[in-house]
Automatic annotation (TrEMBL), chain A:
Subcellular compartments: Cell membrane
Span of domain ABC transmembrane type-1: 73-289
Protein name in UniProt: Multiple sugar transport system permease protein
Pfam families reported in the protein's UniProt record: BPD_transp_1
Chief location of this protein within or outside the cell: membrane
Gene Ontology process terms (BP): transmembrane transport
Automatic annotation (TrEMBL), chain B:
Primary subcellular site in the record, as a coarse category: membrane
Species: Neobacillus niacini
Localization: Cell membrane
Name the record gives this protein: Multiple sugar transport system permease protein
PROSITE patterns linked to this entry: ABC_TM1
GO biological process, one term: transmembrane transport
Family: Belongs to the binding-protein-dependent transport system permease family.
Entry-linked InterPro entries: BP-dep_ABC_trans_perm, MetI-like, MetI-like_sf
Length: 299, 273
């Protein structure tokens, strides 16, 4: 009797989880198992590729003293922060403009067209911006035509002072439309009454922006910042394609640093240890996001 | 917010929007030029001689056409698998309470944080060991795992917006969970399914890193690799590179224009509250 009851419970449980089972199985197989492998590999020495030997924390102590690792971490932080906040500002400007009471056809066209950068692949974005930042490219032609003769000689991607900036510009261009779209959706939920009341009180544009719009968008901005932070922190394609991390490591980010160690020097142990470190930074920095998401689930 | 000055709004949109579209405009302008005119001096905004040379260079190259076919096969397979798995999981997470639900959701959130470059090393070793190196299947598996977490969350948020009373009514009428999933939940979910599909297709169509590592021949490599290789080789044939870039972006843009209404609904169902 009791046994039968337990069996029914089990059947009921499987009936409930059966819907999530295919997805969860795939995810565990394709992410949890690899993660376990990387953790394991990070403790091995791959000098002899065929017979890796256990090396304790050697890989960790090695990368932590590598100045090139800290250079890559610094570049990643700059790349991420500048990309996220510029993208967010540009996205907000476009979202605010599109949210005005303008011709609906006009708005629909602009909203669609402004999404194009987000739809192009990173390889295409890299190709376009390499052409634009070419020493004889559009940027320099434009600069020389408005009188900046000296600046127009710059080889943007070949100069260690400007290469990171050029890659970031390409990255912002690809990233802003998604933020624009989400912010616009958020703006449309703000009641017009708030603005009308503020106008009666004589509030100007910036007062309304900082006291109504941004506070009302707080949640969506927070979510966007964290998502974009994660996506940019781990981004690889643009840097790899446009500069390969050069010149003189000036654009090397953590992803390309790890890639070079894994697939150029074939030091899987060292690369794994660095990748684990990178994952830990990301989890630590998005801790509050995780915490608030989990709290939401609990409700 | 600045309703008094509509003219200013239109003007700002046109000016700023045009600046934002310069790279797209430039890609198209270069794609329709002859190669010597790519760096024409002084600057020519429009092609001095309008020509389809660059496109015929691309079409005459059978390898590039093969890359297109590969990209479609891979991206469509990933989209198909992902829509089914994500819709089911979204339904499960939205409607049922069970032990381990919270841990499963936390894990899904966590996977969003995995650096791709972290996963690519064990994938590479695993895929070579099981003999899937340089197959469509290797990439389909990998891309499915990237697209699933966000897709599941999107579907769950979307299904959350569908009233529970509907399932309960169906239950009273004798519908089991599977039946009510197909007949009650899926039909109003169309925008969510489209959003998931578009998101997944874009992700799979545009991926680069795993394609570099997991494949090595033209028979299975996707288009992104083709463009990536041309960036190296073709540096003298910018017009062909831009023509290929244009051709690779066009399908996504066309699909997006048709379904963007649903896409917006699906994408923002849960995140804007």
């Amino acid at each position: 009797m009791n046994n039968n009851h337990a069996r029914n419970d089990l059947v009921e449980y499987f009936r409930k989880v059966s819907f999530i089972l295919p997805a969860i199985t795939l995810l565990l197989l394709l992410t949890a198992y690899p993660l376990y492998q990387v953790i394991l590999m990070s403790f091995y020495d791959y000098t002899d590729k065929a017979n890796p030997i256990f090396a304790g924390i050697k890989n960790y102590t090695e990368f932590i003293v590598d100045p090139l690792f800290w250079n890559a971490l610094g570049n990643t932080v700059v790349f991420t922060i500048v990309s996220v906040f510029s993208g967010l500002s540009i996205g907000l400007i476009f979202a605010l403009l599109l949210n005005q009471q303008i011709n609906t056809k006009f708005r629909a066209i602009f909203r669609s067209v402004l999404m194009f950068p987000w739809l192009t692949s990173s390889t295409v974005v890299a190709a376009i911006f390499m052409l634009i930042f070419n020493p004889f490219g559009l940027v320099n032609k434009f600069l020389s035509s408005i009188g900046f003769t000296e600046l127009s000689q710059t080889a943007w991607l070949g100069d260690e002072n400007t290469a990171l900036l050029a890659v970031i510009v390409a990255n912002i261009w690809r990233g802003f439309p998604f933020m624009m779209l989400m912010l616009l959706a958020g703006l449309q939920t703000i009641s017009n009454d708030l603005y009308e009341a503020a106008e009666i009180d004589g509030a100007g544009f910036f007062k309304k922006l900082f006291y109504i719009t941004i506070p009302q968008l707080k949640n969506i901005i927070l979510t966007l910042v964290i998502l974009e932070f994660i996506w940019n922190f781990r981004s690889f394609d643009l840097v790899f394609l446009m500069t390969g991390g050069g010149p003189m490591n000036s654009t090397e980010v953590l992803s390309t640093y790890i890639y070079h160690h894994a697939f150029r020097t074939l030091d899987f142990g060292y690369a794994s240890a660095t990748a684990i470190f990178m994952l830990l930074i990301m989890v630590a920095l998005s801790f509050f996001y995780l915490k608030s998401s989990i709290k939401k689930e609990g409700e | 917010m600045f309703r008094k000055n509509k003219f200013g709004v239109y003007l700002s949109l046109i000016v700023l929007g045009s600046i934002a579209m310069v790279p797209i405009f430039w890609m198209i302008s270069i794609a329709f030029r002859t190669n010597p005119e790519v760096f024409a001096s002084p600057l020519k905004l429009l092609p001095p001689t309008f020509t389809l040379d660059a496109f015929s260079t691309v079409f005459e190259n059978r390898e590039l056409i093969q890359l297109f076919i590969n990209s479609y096969i891979i991206a469509l397979s990933v989209t198909f698998i992902c829509i089914i798995a994500a819709a089911m999981a979204g339904y499960g997470f939205s409607r049922f309470d069970f032990k381990g639900k919270r841990s499963a959701l936390i894990y899904i959130l966590l996977t969003q944080m995995f650096p791709m470059v972290l996963l690519v090393i064990p994938y590479f070793l695993f895929i070579t060991r099981v003999g899937l190196y340089n197959t469509y299947f290797a990439l389909i598996l990998a891309y499915t795992s990237f697209a699933l977490p966000f897709s599941i969350m999107m579907m769950r948020d979307f299904i959350n917006t569908i009233p529970k009373e509907l399932d309960e009514a169906a239950k009273i009428d004798g519908c089991g969970p599977l039946k009510s999933f197909f007949y009650i939940i899926l039909p109003p979910c169309l925008p969510g399914l489209i959003a998931t599909g578009v998101y997944t297709f874009i992700l799979a169509w545009n991926e680069f890193l795993f394609a570099v590592i997991l494949t090595n021949s033209i028979e299975v490599r996707p288009l992104t690799i083709g463009i990536g290789m041309l960036i190296g080789e073709f540096t003298t044939e910018w017009n062909a590179l831009m023509a290929l870039s244009f051709m690779s972006s066009a399908p996504l843009i066309i699909v997006f224009l048709f379904v963007q209404k649903y896409f917006l609904q699906g994408l923002t169902a849960g995140s804007v509250k």
